[in-house]
Design a protein that fits this description.
This protein is of the alpha/beta class. Helices cover 34% and strands 17% of the residues. The protein is globular. The chain binds ligand TZD and calcium ion.
Length: 525
């Protein structure tokens, strides 16, 4: 019998973890690993590493499991790093495997050697390693997968010299594929009782929920807790996922990213309970105090760093799904139910179309089985408030604000959920950072509807420029981009619309299509 190679055991470990989809963009260093890929694996080719990581990010978030990425050496890693900022803040479990040059030649810096490879992706990965011997490669792969998947989850990085793959695997590597790592940390009885007592004693508590509530599939517990407390629910600023059904009468909307508006929204509450989010991830800087006078903050997060860096609040680091379940069961039912907030007004542009009108039409057609990806930086804070989302796990937004996530992540989510429809609403500026994902969508025939919310400008920057008195800054507009031609060039059928009626018709046709479709929706700024 021939002995298993390092490559054989690595594929076995990946298979054991259900990681049979490889997102990648290849180079010479990766070929020895990719050659003869087993039949039960599929390779999803992306044309740029930002798109590769964005797709894997969407896929990992939609499957809830670690996703595998193959990158080319230092240059492929460098191209991936913008997308890695989103994966990092989304707590997205990605295992990035970068090909290294032949082990004995890296010191002389031959072409495509990656110098100090393990340092390169820091601080965007929680674990980074280049094994010191081929005998340690398979173990390092298993180690990386368990690191990525353990709380706080996140991307990890491994650099492997390509001559290692053909080496014989140590016999004990056979133990690796069947390893498991479980985390059982939970609130003990006393901790839970103290939190329940705090909530019960509050006069007017308010819940602020973040993406990890959704990532933990804990929406039903969040609903039960809100109802029993009679508490309104806000979504934390710039959420990368939607933690609460937006049609629920207790849903109030998404907190703004500036201190003053945020504080105003929480006025009147003596206790703010933040769960599964940083407290808070502000964006637009404003002078002012963080909290309404006399208000206390309880913060539950599963990310120790989120707890440590917050400027206020009493934090408990614990898995938030189990904590929410315990709290929902523990608190007294006050018997109060809230009435829904009024529907927001829709701005119209006679003869043309506004972004709000696009969201209105998405809302009309919203249904279970549709997952949304939002990368429109002027409609971002409106999306959850205007588009009905009743199901968990149906919304994604770039977690770090790094653009280029939208188009690739939508393709990744589509690959994870082939029976669903993914609707990606992406700004004309944002689309260009991940445009090559259209090619992968066409090749894989994903059921993805790409809506380009096209106002011809970097709208969010114009908004910032107005606040910062910088409207004469260069580089704020992006005219002259033909998205119909770009999409068609990549193999995705596309049309251009300029009115709500035309958009509705194009959208209905796109929802009924069996492959990807792009709609270039011209909107006024
Ligand atoms: N580059 C990257 C990778 N990420 C970024 N966030 C930016 C640049 C800066 N940026 C923003 O933060 S918003 C924005 C840019 C360029 C404008 C995006 O324009 P858009 O959307 O057309 O996608 P709106 O709706 O017109 O704002
Ligand atoms: Ca724009």
């Amino acid at each position: 019998m021939t002995r298993a190679t390092v490559r054989d055991t690595t594929y076995e470990i990946l298979r054991a973890h259900g990681m049979t989809t490889v997102f990648g963009n290849p180079g010479s260093n990766e070929l020895p690993f990719l050659a003869g890929m087993p039949d039960d694996f599929r390779y999803v080719l992306g044309l740029h590493e930002g798109a590769v990581v964005g797709m894997a990010d969407g896929y990992a978030q939609a499957t809830g499991r670690p996703a595998f990425v193959s990158l080319h050496a230092a240059s492929g890693t460098g191209n991936a790093m913008g997308a890695l900022t989103n994966a990092h803040y989304a707590h997205s479990p990605l295992v990035l495997l970068a090909g290294q040059q032949v082990r004995s030649t890296v010191g002389q810096e031959v072409m495509l050697s990656s110098v100090d490879a393990a340092l390169l992706p820091r601080p965007l990965v929680k674990h980074s390693h280049e094994p010191l011997s081929p005998d340690d490669v398979s173990r390092s792969v298993a180690h990386a997968i368990h690191e990525a998947g353990s709380s706080p989850r996140g991307p990890v990085y491994l650099s492997v010299p390509y001559d290692d793959w053909s080496q014989p695997a140590p016999a004990d590597d056979a133990l690796l594929a069947s390893r498991s790592v479980r985390h059982a940390a939970a609130l003990d009885g006393g901790q839970l009782a103290a939190l329940v007592a705090d909530l019960d004693a509050a006069r007017a508590p308010v819940l602020v929920l973040g993406p990890d509530v959704d990532a933990e599939r804990a929406q039903p517990h969040a609903v039960a807790l809100a109802e029993r407390l009679g508490a309104p629910v806000w979504v934390a600023p710039s959420p990368s996922r939607c933690p609460f059904p937006t049609t629920h009468p207790h849903f109030r909307g998404q907190l703004q990213t500036g201190k003053n508006a945020l504080r105003g929204a929480l006025e009147g509450h003596d206790l703010i309970v933040v769960i599964g989010a940083p407290a808070f991830r502000y964006h637009r800087y404003e002078e002012g105090s963080y909290l309404p006078e006399g208000t206390r903050v309880l913060h539950l997060t599963q990310d120790p760093s989120e707890a440590a860096r917050a400027p206020f609040g009493s934090a408990t680091v614990t898995p938030v799904g189990a904590a929410l379940a315990g709290l929902a069961e523990g608190v007294a039912d006050r018997g109060e139910r809230l009435t829904p907030r009024p529907a927001p007004a829709v701005r119209r542009a006679p003869g043309g179309m506004t972004g709000e009108e696009i969201l209105e039409i998405l809302d009309e057609r919203s249904a279970p089985g549709i997952t949304y990806v939002n990368e429109t930086t002027t409609l971002d804070t409106m999306f959850l408030e205007r588009v009905a989302m009743t199901e968990p796990d149906s919304y994604h937004f770039p977690a770090s604000g790094g653009l280029g996530f939208g188009l690739p992540a939508a393709v990744g989510v589509s690959l994870a959920r082939p029976d669903d429809t993914v609707v990606a609403v992406v700004g004309d500026g944002s689309a260009n950072y991940g445009i090559t994902a259209l090619w992968t969508a066409a090749q894989q025939r994903t059921r993805t509807v790409f809506v380009i919310a096209n106002n011809g400008t970097y709208g969010a920057l114009r908004g910032f420029a107005a606040v910062l008195d910088a409207l004469d800054a260069p580089g704020l507009d992006v005219p002259g981009i033909d998205f119909v031609a770009l999409a068609t060039g990549y193999g995705v059928p596309a049309s251009r619309v300029t009115t709500p009626d035309a958009f509705r018709a194009a959208y209905d046709a796109a929802l009924a299509a069996d492959g990807p479709v792009l709609i270039d929706a011209r909107i006024v700024f």
